[in-house]
Amino acid sequence: MLTIVAVAVLSTVSATAQDKWTGIARYAADNEKLLAAPADPARVVLLGNSITDNWPKFHSEFFAQHTHLVPRGISGQTSYQMLVRFREDVVNLHPKAVVINCGTNDIAENGGGPYNEDNTMGTIMSMVEIAKANKIKVYLSSVLPSKCMYWASDKTNIQEKIASLNARIQKYAKKQGLPYIDYYTPMVYGEVRELNPKYSTDGVHPTADGYRLVMEPVLLKALRMK
Questions:
Q1: CA dist 12 to 3, 4, 88, Å?
Q2: How far apart are CA 46 and CA 62, in angstroms?
Q3: Along the chain (226 residues), what's the average pLDDT of each consecutive run of 10 residues?
């Protein structure tokens, strides 16, 4: 009996830890409500990390106005974690398209291991392939500029890593015939290539003005939405 109880407890702990790492449970209830509502043939999922997670918190009016846009961002997540929840938060919602924004936390090494650009690109390619197999149009977006990740201040060459990854993403998008959404260019500032202080207070995340004045017009133009 003790053995059975111990196994049950360990299984529960393991499942809880797994759910926390994958983030699959984060939007489970919201996804159920979305699927219970009438189908939306124009639905576009915004898959991302804290950049996407903060968006509806900072400017909820944008999503109230553009109800086709479905934000599915989880703060701190790497591209690997997004890949794990791609079916639950993207495929199962039957969207017309998905906008993938990732890379910041890979470069910050949130996963615990050293950053590897090839691995990150491989993960992005896997998400693209899954989307294509399910007839979901893909938009790939740039990583936002930053000169230092404040929670990972020991990491170096951040600007170079971001620029290199963005170049790879853009090249891959062109090769695959996918639209590339460039948030980087209108938000980068100065020779140090930081996130424009006009649109950020921490050097990584946009403020409400950053979303409203820069990212939203860029996104809507790419999606050809008014």
A1: 14, 12, 21
A2: 13
A3: 45 57 96 96 98 98 97 98 98 98 97 94 98 98 95 93 98 98 97 96 96 98 82
User: If you ran DSSP here, which 8-state letter would residue 211 be given?
Assistant: I
Confidence at residue 112, expressed as pLDDT on a 0 to 100 scale: 86
C-alpha neighbours within 13 Å on the C-beta side of residue 151: 11
Q: Comparing C-alpha atoms, which of 176, 100, 177, 114 is closest to residue 142?
A: 100
Strands 180-181 and 137-141: parallel
Residues 160/120/70/222 CA torsion (nearest 10 deg): 50
Tokens 């109230």 appear where? 64
- Strand extents, DSSP E, 17-172: 44-48, 69-73, 97-100, 137-141
| Pairing outcome for strands 194-195 and 188-189 | antiparallel
Q: Is the pTM of this model over 0.85?
A: yes
Q: Residue 40: how many CB atoms within 10 A of its CB?
A: 15
Q: For residues 35 and 37, give the distance between their C-alpha atoms in angstroms, rounded to a whole number.
A: 5
Q: How many Cβ atoms from other residues are within 10 Å of residue 138's Cβ?
A: 21
Residue type, 184: Y
Return phi, psi of residue 126, to 5°.
Answer: -65, -40
The two tokens of residue 50 are 């804290």
